[in-house]
Amino acid sequence: MVENPQGLKTIDGSTWLIEDEAENMKIQYRVDDVLYSEKSPFQHVMVVNSPVFGRMLVLDGIVQTTSLDGHIYNEMITHVPLSIHPNPKRVLIIGGGDCGAAREVAKYSEIEEIDMVEIDELVVKACQEYLPAVSGNLSDPRVNFIFDDGLKHVSKYKDHYDVIIVDSSDPIGPAVQLFEKSFYANIKEALKEDGIMVCQSQSPVFHLNILQQTYGYLHELFPISRVYTAVVPTYPGGMWSFTLGSKKYQEVNAHSFDKETKYVSQDLLQQCFALPAFLKDALSK
Amino acid sequence: MVENPQGLKTIDGSTWLIEDEAENMKIQYRVDDVLYSEKSPFQHVMVVNSPVFGRMLVLDGIVQTTSLDGHIYNEMITHVPLSIHPNPKRVLIIGGGDCGAAREVAKYSEIEEIDMVEIDELVVKACQEYLPAVSGNLSDPRVNFIFDDGLKHVSKYKDHYDVIIVDSSDPIGPAVQLFEKSFYANIKEALKEDGIMVCQSQSPVFHLNILQQTYGYLHELFPISRVYTAVVPTYPGGMWSFTLGSKKYQEVNAHSFDKETKYVSQDLLQQCFALPAFLKDALSK
């Protein structure tokens, strides 16, 4: 068994990506080809081809998104806030290097500016070239690619954005500060007086403490805070959470969803807020 | 690396259960102890202790249910049909050897008889002794344990049950006939004129063909057929499907759910029918 630092192992002549999950559990994906593999100043960036999930973006050995299910996460992190805000014009995406969130935001013709602030240019390059199922070879002129630190970018703006989407990786490595209260406070400042933010808040099963902390911060900072979930097959445990902070609006516009999507539907936009009993309970503490 | 037929391997001095999923993908669970391991006439039955999921029931090397999340599947397969039927008296569970479905059904005081027909007595014995988090050491006098073939049992009854719950394992090994149309036709006969059946219909992500086939059969056989989903972290892909066939009733009773549960809530009972766009599409073909 030969292993390299990116989690690839050769077992009986086949290549496998072995991902450590939630301690004491590992997922092994058979890998047919490694299409891209580079070390950026921030992390190791890899795109591999797997028979089950198709192409997969792997950062520091952790699967981030795949051809099979990348759309689920990207549709859910974008269409929920954009169906709550009645008139979004300026949208900021922090992270989102796979370009899938920007691609979904670009489906709204009324949006005039989409700023995408990703710290790692190599991620965007790899996904645009090797992961078109997720990035959609995004080339909308309203998208401004800004390769910078999301924290620094947000702190420069006041009363500027209608919707801010925090599409971060896990709270280890380059994304750790994107889970801190001071960051959400800066986001609140950067939003207009009726603005909405959303962030991914990890697995309610394996990282309930992070979801509770995130919800706690947004609950303190915003008049309206809500949690919703989606099922993302490649994330451990399947169930994934998102947390919204909103200054004014809270309900999804009924009967208005008309975008072409694979996972999101009008029903689902409204019903994703129905939480399992254990989760309701955990968030009411 | 030493392997035995039940999927246990010793790697660097630790024991792991290695489960093959959907070809070309494996999940490795660290195992602290093997609490029970016997070969029955039908399959290999094992209960192990794992640090992430607690105790796990493993049949022929495949994880069936765990202390951490067994309640999700069992609550969803029971409370949905029992919240649709206004007055269930006689309930049949086919399979359900972990006793979790019978435990949930027993929460309804108006139910008079709960027949549980499980082909493999060893599964019930193992779960009652080593998996109390799921089985709840079930000892309700209304539960009749019948160790027999579910197909044979069902074909003996006409116009008898209010609700039939098909809680089978995967469509390989002893459960393969529980996915056939003739079996569902017999279930229809065994149900009263306003009866309801439900079955687990596998992962919409990895076994969409089985869900489509099951929904197709129930759609042909019953005036009302509906699909709902839940998130079961230990099942591959997380998202799991259930299919209902009903002779008369279709709506969940609003505002009436009062059982003590960990996953199911009144909201969730109604909203579990909101399907992702790809699934709606796949079922309308």
TrEMBL record, chains A, B:
One of its GO terms (cellular component) is cytosol. GO terms for biological process: spermidine biosynthetic process. Homodimer or homotetramer. HAMAP family: Spermidine_synth. The keyword Signal does not apply. GO terms for molecular function: spermidine synthase activity. This is Polyamine aminopropyltransferase. Belongs to the spermidine/spermine synthase family. Its EC number is 2.5.1.16. SUPFAM superfamilies: S-adenosyl-L-methionine-dependent methyltransferases (SSF53335). Residues 14-247 form the PABS domain. It catalyses: S-adenosyl 3-(methylsulfanyl)propylamine + putrescine = S-methyl-5'-thioadenosine + spermidine + H(+). NCBIfam families: PRK00811.1 (NF002010), speE (TIGR00417).
